[in-house]
Amino acid sequence: MSASEADRYARQILHWGEKKQRMIQSSSVLIAGVGGLGATVSQLLVRAGIGQLYLIDDGILDWPDLNRQTLYGEKDIGRAKRPLARERLNQINASTRIVELPGRIDEAFLVPVAVDSVADCLDNYRSRFALYRALPGGTYFVHGGLQGDNGQVLTLLSGESRPLDEIFAGALQPQGSIPATPDNVAVIAGLMVNELFSVLWKAPKLLNRCLVVGLTDFSMAFVDV
Hints:
Elements: H1 3-8, H2 10-25, E1 28-32, H3 36-48, E2 52-56, H4 81-92, E3 97-100, E4 117-120, H5 125-133, E5 140-147, E6 150-157, H6 164-167, H7 182-200, E7 209-214, E8 219-224
Parallel strand pairs: 1-2, 1-4, 2-3, 4-5
Antiparallel strand pairs: 5-6, 6-7, 7-8
């Protein structure tokens, strides 16, 4: 680790040490969706010094996105999110390699084999199921979801865990826009990143265990899957 890196990451190294910091800097994460959850998850990983991020999102920034999608501003309305996210993330930390993946997540999508873990920041089950089916064996998958004051975080290991489409079989996709406030998005995104760090250190806390969060009363529960 260079002197500048040691200085840049000094506060977090005080917390988790140089070995874990080096593991973060040598890791690669795929961010599926750079909207509400994905904008914050990707930003926190980059600030922590993640080595490489893959980004996939075919969306265009619109006014309703600005209340919670922390990488963007008013002048970005109408721009494609994926290249915009890459631009902003590079401004935060130029040492992180950002790779854009074109297209969208469907049955033809392939997850790069270099990815250590995948952050599911999507907003619909159809794409989530396709993403999980595209994972190479032995890839960690950190799922996050939010609707209003209710959120969830879950980690799976492809090839060993129960498939995502079985866990959420029969789950109903909300009709229309999903209610979301900036504070609740930040809470769930932060929990996802906390778990992603644990995954990169090979010590996941939520493997096959869904954390269900109620933000009206700060309740938390675990559901084994």
